[in-house]
Amino acid sequence: MIKTAMGLKINPETFQEKIKAVVAKEIQLELECQIELPENDQLLIFINSYSEDILTKIINLIKEIIADYKITDYYSIVNIENQDIVYFSSVNGSENNQDLSNVIENIEDGKASNTFYKSANFSAGFIIFILGVISLTIFGVTYYFTRPCVLGTCTLITDTEVATNNLFNQLETNNLTDSKIKELITDLVQNIETLKTIPSWSKEHDQAQMLISSYQEKINDLQLFLDAKSVATNAQNMSEKLPLSLDEWLRVKQFWQDAIAPLNKIKSEEFKEFKTLRINTYQQQLSFVNRQIEKENLAINKRENAEKIVAQIKGENNITNSLEALKEREKKWKSAIQEIEQIPPQTAVYQEKEEIINDYLQQISEVQKKITIEENALNLKKNIEEKMKSAQEQEKQNQWTKAVNLWQEVINLTGTISPDSWLKDEIEKQKNEAEGKLEIAQGALKKAVKREEIKTKLREICQSSERICSYTVSDSNIKVYLTDEYIQKITSLSVMSDLTNNNEQEKQIINHINQVEKNYQYISSKYQIPVEIYNPQQKLIMIYNSYL
């Protein structure tokens, strides 16, 4: 497990998933990450390689997560493919004493982080090597003698002991809250981290290790207080809403027992008074729970009466296939609910009663839903029949537009029938009938529209300036009857032009007759109907079949 300053025991897999989740949220990247805890207690975080800016963001996010968890283990962020490449190490707090851009450049070139420059000039390379060895030696010696408590008087241990004693001297039993406990843990962890800076070659190292062990024991005891409080909080939360069932009270009892158990493991004398106070408090709660369990055992008999009522109601739950039978079942469910509601409140059985009522309400809701479906279906069928009757009346009156609209409404209404209705098949038959009627009505409407268009054209021809003809239009032919006035006028103009040798007038008469013939030919061609021309005595004088 991963160590933290707050005493939390973090599973490496949990920590690994946390890193992946944060990286995915912050920079929208699916990170390949692996957490390991080697024997030297150094946390290793393996990640894959990225560009410098992305890698920097990932490292900073990991640092923030570690800071949030207050992880006390040393840790290193390492390339998952090449463990020689270390992006960051908490031992010295830097990116492995390398510039991160150089590390990335080496990765891209297929090199490890410990790659070196091979000079083409051997002498120059050798001199650089010697200077490097000298520098490392100077650095090592300096590091060795400048670590805490290596040379001179070591005040670090004394200062740490004094600070720790002051912490515990200021403790008050009635003021040892969870926040105060966490504050103590944080201070102790800081003191431990301070003592860890004393190197193994210091003469004070052994004493520092003893203090670290002592402080760690106190941290463990404080963590036991927090563990006990966490379990006790679960018991309190579960007991907030009364009454509870017997099983729930047994769980609460187990919570209080589990809360007392870690308190008995506390060894530090500094916490003895507070430990006793906490145990007494939890024991009082445990006694209360035991009394509630006894009461619940006595109340169980009330539930048996309710179960008899339930069995009777379920025995009457038969399958129905009519609206009347559905309504009868609804009455029975209502009666069953009324019986269950007579169970008195403020007992655990009352909560079970509510669950049963909810179940019955759900079942009666299904019955009521079915009743609604069938009532709606009956109303729908009635509405459809009325509209079908109206559509047929409109057809008799040749009101084809209204008939088409009504048949379409019928089809639309049939689409609203519930697929669960018993009347679905009947409505489907009405739909099929309406679709056939609609097709017929649409055809009739199309013909009627066509006839009206022809009449409009003939009206323009026959009554442009004077009435020259009358007409009748059917689906099979068009009959045009020339008027006496029009025939006489054409005849008179023709005779007059012959007598006067008025060529211009004769030309106008011919053009007029040609235009009239073109109009008839146009109508015949466009509407694919023969146009028959009759004289005033209703004798056929011409037929135009331009579409043939």
Order of helices and strands: HEEHEEHHHHHHHHHHHEEHHEE
Question: Radius of gyration from the CA trace?
Answer: 51 Å
Total helical elements: 15
Please state how the strands of the largest beta sheet are arranged side by side: 1-2-3-4
pLDDT < 50 runs, ≥5 residues: 94-98, 110-122, 139-146
Q: Classify the secondary structure makeup into a structural class.
A: alpha/beta
Helix amount, in percent?
55-70%
Termini, distance in Å? 98 Å
Shape: elongated
State the total count of DSSP E strands. Answer: 8
Task: Please outline the major beta sheet.
Answer: 4 strands, mixed
| Quaternary organisation | single chain
Measured by DSSP, the beta-strand proportion falls in 5-15%
Quote the average pLDDT.
80
What does this protein look like?
By secondary structure, the protein is α/β, with parallel strands linked by helices. It has 15 helices and eight strands. It has helices at residues 12-27, 52-69, 100-108, 122-146, 156-169, 178-196, 205-238, 246-263, 272-315, 323-340, 348-396, 400-414, 424-462, 484-500, 503-527, and strands at residues 33-36, 42-47, 74-79, 86-89, 469-473, 478-482, 531-534, 540-544. A four-stranded mixed sheet has the order 1-2-3-4, covered by helices on one side. α2 links the parallel β2 and β3 (74-79). α7 (205-238) runs antiparallel to α8 and α10 (323-340) packs antiparallel against α11 (348-396).
